[in-house]
Structure to design on (200 residues):
């Protein structure tokens, strides 16, 4: 469980890495909310939504997930290594999406819904972060996000969720991510550091 106390003075590195880690969480919430807004307001496949905007949102999600993955304070080395490998797989999946979509990951998921499965590693990275925080600080919405994101992707890729349903699923995900972010990013920095001496 997470420790809600200060065990040692915080270093500059501690403060910078926690800031970057939480920035990743915040940006993920922003990009998810933006994506949900586009789906619910006009439909992501609507001609009024340029593919470039959607592509940039997807790239933004990868960037924000990368910040959290590489700056997470996780003292179990094996888990941290596995998380990084999952992110690398996610980057390879992104490259596959770009290839399938002829340079646009958005075009790939719009023309071949099954390609949404290539976003599973990305959702796994974000879900790992939210589940880790849920475990440490009882942020229950973190567990919900870790379960619902891959479930929604699988349902959409199988055609169970059509565009309207996908919009509502994204909306629910965005709301949970906003709640999670607001509860997480304002915690004292020391909560993310814990007792480093226990792992040295």
């Amino acid at each position: 469980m997470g420790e809600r106390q200060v065990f040692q003075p915080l270093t500059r590195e501690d403060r910078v890495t926690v800031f970057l880690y939480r920035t990743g969480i915040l940006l993920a919430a922003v990009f998810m909310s933006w994506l949900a807004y586009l789906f619910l307001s006009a439909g992501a496949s609507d001609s009024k939504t340029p593919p470039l905007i959607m592509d940039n949102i997807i790239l933004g999600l990868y960037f924000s997930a990368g910040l959290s993955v590489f700056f997470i304070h996780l003292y179990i080395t094996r888990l941290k290594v596995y998380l990084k490998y999952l992110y690398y797989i996610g980057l390879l999946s992104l490259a596959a999406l770009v290839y399938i979509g002829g340079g646009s990951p958005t075009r790939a998921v719009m023309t071949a819904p099954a390609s949404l499965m290539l976003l599973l590693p990305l959702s796994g990275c974000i879900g790992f972060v939210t589940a880790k925080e849920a475990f440490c600080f009882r942020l229950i919405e973190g567990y919900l996000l870790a379960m619902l994101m891959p479930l929604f992707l699988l349902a959409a890729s199988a055609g169970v969720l059509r565009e309207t349903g996908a919009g509502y699923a994204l909306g629910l995900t965005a709301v949970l991510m906003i709640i999670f972010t607001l509860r997480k990013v304002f915690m004292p920095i020391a909560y993310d550091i814990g007792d480093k001496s226990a792992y040295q």
Observations:
- The chain has a mean pLDDT of 90.
- The helical segments are 12-41, 51-71, 77-100, 105-111, 120-137, 140-157, 163-184, 190-193.
- Residues 4 and 188 are 8 Å apart (CA to CA).
- The chain is about 70% helix and 0% strand.
